[in-house]
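Progress against Task 2.4 (sequence-to-structure conversion) is shown through the following example record, which the project officer requested during the mid-term review.
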Amino acid sequence: MGLINSLNDWTLFGIIFTGIIIVLGMAEFIRHYMKWAPESTRQFIHIFIGLIVASGPFIFKANVQLITLSILFIVINMILLMSGKVKSMHATERKSYGTVYFPLSVLIMSYLWWDKPVSFILAIFVLAIADPIAAFIGKNGRTTFIPWRDKKSRRGSLAMFGTTILIIMIGTDILARVYNAAFLMPLSVLIGLSIFTAFSATLAESISFRGSDNLSTPLITFLSYEIFLINYTHGTLPQLLVWTVISIGIFSLAWKQKSLSTSGAISGFLMGIIIFGSGGWPWIIPLVFFFISASVLSHLHHKPYSHRNILQILANGGVGTIFAIIYFFTNFPPAIVLYLGAIGAATADTWATEIGFYSKNQPRLVLSKKIVARGVSGGVTFLGIFGSAMGALIIGILGEEILHLNDLLLPITIAGLTGSLVDSILGRFIQAQFKCRHCGSQTEDRYHCDHKTKLIFGSKWIGNDMVNFINTIAGAFVAYFFWMNYG
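Structure tokens generated for the chain above:
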């Protein structure tokens, strides 16, 4: 019987795969011979495939077919994108990887959260319906803004917000009845859930770049929906809403003071929602300390705090956020130590730079005696190393006092120092260095003086943000290793 059911699922898989291929062929035929605009056929394909994927939990008994379908279309779409063929799917005004991000988001959610069909279905529906509606309505919007690199319209964002609210409200009610939910939530809670999720999804869509909203929108929709529901059922929803209000104030202030760019403020807000929703006040306090201390130290010597964008926020907090998500869905206790190790490494690296600024001695390249100018990647000072240790130590203290864990001081301090060392080594030997074509300055940025810079050293794939990201990974696992073995 099990074999028959499996064969039936694979038969359905074959039918769906063939159907999608036929629809792609029809769309290409219509575009080529009926002269439809590529954007129109692309949106049609987007909606059609989205609706098919959203019905996956109803069609398949297990997630293996949807996972296989996702992998196939990641490969197929990447090949088609690189070849420039099938313009009905890939022809856009700007280069986009949206057709690859879409199946990637389905792969992640179907692999990790197949046991949460309601959240899965609604997240895909938001991507399949709300996103195209926002693009259509916002296409001719006069009031535009650029949160990161892609231009957005206020009218499109409002359409995204409103459509998502309707999808969440109506979809939650219908699916709760379909899946025989133990209880139906009160209308006021349903409205709050819809607004909270729609607000998060709209923000995620606003900071997209080259089609990345096909990945970020469904993931953020799924996570914010789950976070609201779990906090509601656990009685901690008021605290989550209080943090949401406080967080809006914090990141709005940071944006006004130009500590963060628009994309940095939005991504920081979403990151904070995920971390607070996963662990409450004890988890968010170390991250808040990192952000505030870094800002204060930077402003003390009147240095602009980098106007940090989404990439820099993700580089420093992305790893910690992943461990918060792991803890939220699995209640895996070591995730707490891994989280603190990542935040400790980010704090240590930032403190090393900011406190090392006051060193009377010139920095020397790590693993050598060569003196270099301040700010050169790979340069270290004794004062900077001391600052690194102090930053990580404070994160360890916060972990012990707030999260009530024992024997954290040494593991987190070692993790911070190790992360900073990794950062310096990568900065010296691997990190990309560029030269400005306009003013001739050496820089870590790919753009300088509004001109694209020229690579003069290192790997073009390993920039400062990637180095910081690797730093936090190293810090996380070093903290876990020492906590497990010597804590």
